[in-house]
Structures are given as C-alpha cells and as structure tokens.
Amino acid sequence: MKTPREAFSRILEILDRMEVPYLVGGSVASAVHGISRPTMDADLVVDLPVSKVDEFAGMLEPDFYADAEVIREAFAASRPFNVIHYASTYKFDFFPLANDEYSQTEFGRRRFVETRSFGGEPLECAVATAEDTILRKLLWYRAGGEASERQWNDIRGVLQVSRAVLDVAYLRKWADRLTVSDLLTRLLN
Q1: Which of these, 27, 31, 77, 105, has the minimum number of CB atoms within 10 Å of its CB?
Q2: DSSP class of residue 163?
Q3: What is the pTM of this model?
C-alpha cells in the first residue's frame, strides 16, 4: 500500500468491516460535486464509538500512524484527530459526528458515489451532498475570516458544476440557521 488511493481504500475497508458509519467531506466532496484540485488530506466525519477506538487504531497498523490514546482524547473533547499514511504521508482528518441538528441532518443525507479524487479506478464512498458541501465550506470560510481563496473557489466550483441539481430551498434554510446566508447570497449572485 504505497499511494493515497490505496490508503483511502484501506480506510474505507476498515470502516466498512467495523460497521462504522462515515461521511467524506471537505475537498474530496467538493471535487465529487465540483472541480477537482490537488490536496494532501481527506476529511471524514465518523460515528465511531469510543469502545471501538482500540480496534480501529489496531487495524490501521502498520501502514498508518494512528495513536489510540490520541484518538480517545480527541473524541472526548469533540475534536478531530488525524491518521497519517506512512508510505505517502497523506493525512486523513477524522471528525467525530456532532450531535447538533445540522450535523445530524448532513450525516443522514450522505450518498454513496464514486470518486476519482485519488486517481486510478474510482472508489465508492459515502460523501456529503452538494448542498451540504457548500454549507460546510461556507462555515469553514467564515471561521477562517473569509480569507481562504481555496475554500471560496471550492464552493464556486460546486455551484458551477452542480447548480442545476441543487436544492436551493434547503441551502437557504440551513444557510440562515447557520448564519452564513449573506455568503450564500453572494455566492448565488
């Protein structure tokens, strides 16, 4: 296992084997629904019970850096943790599934699609919808002081490619509740 694609495939296999629900978001999701760009990490939201952390970390060895204690501490504090693939140095950021209404809704809307974000043959995985990819990236854009051109371009790419199929009512409803409606209006105009 030498490539990021092989590493991603292995992570998906482990999550599937452990029956851990997940959602792929971030730049991988924006590439699925928009325009692909190079990235050195992948973001996954996982509903990983603390009771399965040791098994998860153990299954990742010896190909990944994954510290069970760090994972437990991160989840206890509702913070993300990362896993690094030794051979490629590709980083996988894992976010614990939050309990707020939007996070639960977003997670429930995920769809299995094929992605070529890692090159080679496509991989099937559970990905955030185009609408939720836009909303989540708008939140990250706002949290970053609205300065990240990369985030804004990802959002614009999703809009450009997926505009015809977007549920604009859903976008407006959640943008208002997440206090990013001004950014959504700017995007749509």
Answers
A1: 77
A2: G
A3: 0.94
